[in-house]
Amino acid sequence: MKRINILSASLALILFTNLKANAQFKLSDIFKKVTEKSTTGATGTPSTLEIGQGIKEALQIGVSAGADRLSAKDGFLGNLAVKILMPPEAQKVERTLRSIGLNSLCDNVITSLNRAAEDAATEAKPIFVSAIKGMTLTDATNILLGNKNAATEYFKRVTTAQLMQKFSPIVTTSLSKVNATKYYSDLTSQYNRLPLVKPVNTNLTEYVTQKAIDGLFIEVAKEELKIRDNFSSRSSTLLQKVFGYADKKKS
What we know:
Blueprint: H1 2-40, H2 48-71, H3 91-99, H4 103-121, H5 124-133, H6 137-145, H7 150-177, H8 180-192, H9 204-229, H10 237-250
């Protein structure tokens, strides 16, 4: 009887071990298939349509991030790469006035110029999105396999005129709203009163509009470089496939 019990226990142990092994095998097999599926989805040669979709997805992410960053408070003022300084012809004015203790007047002008640009940047996103929608498959392929700033150059080519047209009235309104026009008038008036100086006149709207657009392209270029160089920035299987293909083509 004792021998029968030992035999039964042994058979039960063998059966349990086999069931456990089979279960582990099935789980590992499922895991393997899931892993293969996820990795193969991000590799291979993308179709022309996938390249177009991938580039548009990447650029929408990039321009949204760039425009949102710049349109926030201190988006220009707090970013040394795009901060708007005094117009070139007024920089001598700034140095002179700071030397006689009028720092706050100069600071007010610079702050207000940047506030006006931040206001204008809120209007940039729809213009960029429209340019993305109008992009051809040839444009997309050229951007993908082009230089690291190919997308930024594309945007410069197709959006600059629209941005200038859209930004100019916004900047004009913003300059008045944030007192930039008044501050700058005060600054130049103070300077022009000094003996033996050449009067300074600046088209503030034109200057700030151009600087705001330049700043947008700088931020778009940062986003473009990020998605080209950092795998972690490729947030979807499509982006991984499309930009992975570009990596192989350029290696």
